[in-house]
Every structure is written in C-alpha cells, then in structure tokens.
Amino acid sequence: MSKLKENFSPAWWVPTLYFSAGLPYVAAATVSVLMYKDLGISNARIALFTTLIMWPWSLKPLWSPVLEMFKTKKYFVLITELIGGMLFGLLAFSLPLDGFFQFSLILLALIAFNSATHDIAGDGVYISTLNHEQQAKFVGWQGAFYNIAKVLSQGGLVWLAGFLAKQVGNIEAWMMVMGLFGIILISMSIYHYRILPSGGFSSRVNTIHEAFQIFRDVIKTFFKKKYILWGILFLILFRFAEGQLVKIVPLFLKDSRDVGGLGLDNEEIGLAYGIFGAASFVVGSVLGGYFVRQRGLKNSLIWLAIIFNIPDIVYAILAFLQPENLVIIAGLIMTEWVGYGFGFIGVILYIMQQMAPGKYQMAHYAIATSLMGFGFMIPSMISGYISEWLGYKSFFLWVMIATIPSFYVAWRVPFKEIEN
After folding, report:
1. Which contacts of 358-362 are long-range, i.e. CB under 8 A and separated by 24 or more positions?
2. Where are the domains of the chain?
3. CATH architecture classification, 10-412
4. N or C: which end of the chain has fewer CB within 10 A?
5. Does pTM surpass 0.85?
6. For residues 308 and 406, is the Cβ–Cβ distance under 8 A?
7. Helices (H), 95-227
8. What string of DSSP letters covers 79-100?
C-alpha cells in the first residue's frame, strides 16, 4: 500500500468511513429482517438467526489485537471494503438457490465478520488520528453518517426493494438490492484509497511468541483500567431495551393489523422507518454531539439516557392505537429516532474517552464495542420469542420497563480524568 497524503481534513473522511461501516451492519441487522420476511421466514426464526449472525461484532476482541501487529489501519479498511462488496455480490446470487436461507445466512455471517474487522480498523483510524477535542467535535457527524447509511439501507434500498418486487418479484428485487450494497462498498474502497489517513503504523511482529505477548498485553491492560467493571456493566446494560426493540419494530410495522401490526408494505416502511426515521437519528446525533461538547460527558450522561429511552413509548402508542395515517406513524417514529440518535452519543463517547485511551487504542476500542454489542445481542436474540409470547402491545410496554437498567448505569458509572 503506497504512502498517501495524511493532511486531508477529517471532514473528508470521517463521514464516508462511518457510512461504509454502517452500510453492511444495517444490511445484516435490519434489512435482512425485511428480506427474510418477504421470502417467507417466521418472525421467531428471523429474530434468532439474524441476531446470531451478528456475533462477530461481539467477538472482535479475539482478532482486534492482530490488527495492532501488521500493516496500517488504513490497509484493513480498504481490504475489508473490497471483500465486503464481493460478498454482497455472492449473497445476491444465493437468493434464487434451493436452501437459500442457509446459504444466505453463511454469507451474511462472513459479511458480519468482514464488517466487524472494518469497524476495528476504522475506529482505530479515528481515535489514533484525532485528539479528544476533535473526537468530541466529529462524534456527532460520525454517528450521523453511520446512520445516513441507515437512511440509504433501510430507507431508500428497502423502498426500492418494495418497488422492484411489484415489477419483477421478491427474489429478483432483493438480488438487485444486495448487488447495490456491494457496488457501494467497492466504490468506498476506491475513494478511501486516496483520501484516508493511515491511522499510524502497527507494531512489527517477528515471532509467534511476540504476537502472543502483544495479545496478552492488550487483554491485560484493558482489564487493568480504572473503573473497568463499572464500565463493562455500563456497556452491557445501556442498550438493554434498545436490543429488544430493534429487531421487532420492522416486523411490527410489516405484520398485518389482525395480528397487532400496522400492515405497512416495504415502500411505506422504507419511507417512515428507513428514510424519515433514520434521518431523524442523524439530527439527534448532531444535536447530541453539540450537547455533550458544551456540558461534558459526565454531566450529560443521565440526560442522554433519558432522551435515549423515554421516546420508546411511541411504539406502545402505535401498537395500541394502530393509526392508518402514514404521516402520523412517521411522525411518531421520527420522535423516537431523534432521541435514539441523541442518547447513543453517550455510549460511543464513553468508550472513546474512558475505555479506549492507552497504548492499544484500536484493540481496546474494539473490546469495549464488542462488550456493548454483547449487551445488545442477548436481549435481541430472544426478542422474537418474547414478542410472540406477549403480543405487540404488551411487548412494547415491557420494553419501557426494560429501560430501567440504562438509567441506573448512566447515573452511577464513575469517571476517570482524561487528558487531551
């Protein structure tokens, strides 16, 4: 990999880097839910298996130290974007096959592993290149463009899938959409080859013994950090309610009214949830970033938790009232997504400022985000069974009760002093 310019403003690469990170994550976590629903898979199986394929984001610590040993962080960003594009192409061609569910799940699992590796390297570029002031300045935009990927993925491309399905059928429509995911990722790889800073060079490793020493040191230094047990508890519990909500909301929006859903088609879901909802997340992310910049994270965290969780009540309102007006549905969803974006800033900045700093920033950031992902995945895996057992109305009321742990850890988690 040739040495390229390092003097581009972060405004040139932070948005596209996190757009590229968000695209495959949303495809695996949310878009696949709607794809499998269209292709006849049950809600419980969808929630379970589309959560199981997300494990690479929670297992990143197993290979994140390796990325500290070889090449540059930029190298891994570029190669994973290129591989990700090719995997989406294979996913598209798997959909017409007999046994497509198994084949597509394997490919989505590979996409997840590849994307998790991209996240490790991309976060490494971000925290290695920017100081704390710059991190706080750009974290809102980081979250915003990660979620612009949501606008495109679960908004524009889901809408496109619904439109194309009426013309050519569900399988062909989803083949085209998955192919587009691949084309976008390959395009991002080409752009980042020119514009992305290296993120610093990794330590040279000459022997397997050295590699194991570095790996052991990465793990040891992470768990020796001040207040680490509180930090882990915070990461696991802050998203406890959100983890249950995220998988079920698209299914609730799509399910027919006679089973408690809203009966929306893919085009309507793409508009209300994907475009207007995810765009509202972008607004919330930017506002949350400026809010924390003015008050500091320690003084902001409980407010972020409140704004993050309380708007979840809109789905209980939708479940009980089942409005038919798409404007009303979209307006309520937008309210929740603004709060979601605003509050999510808290957990990201906590990881950056309280858990990642030190000798192995990239690997420690990856360990922390994987712990956060673990706290998200466990409730997400069982959310399909809970919603089928309780029904949508009672499920969304239960989600409001499940927000309590988030308030507790946001109020109690201690902070250590940080240096810029």
Report:
1. 358/221, 358/225, 359/217, 359/221, 360/65, 360/68, 360/217, 360/218, 360/221, 360/222, 361/124, 361/127, 361/128, 362/64, 362/67, 362/68, 362/73, 362/120, 362/121, 362/123, 362/124, 362/127, 362/128, 362/199
2. 10-412
3. Up-down Bundle (1.20)
4. C
5. no
6. yes
7. 100-129, 132-150, 158-168, 170-195, 208-223
8. HHHHHHHHHHHHHHHHTTSTTH
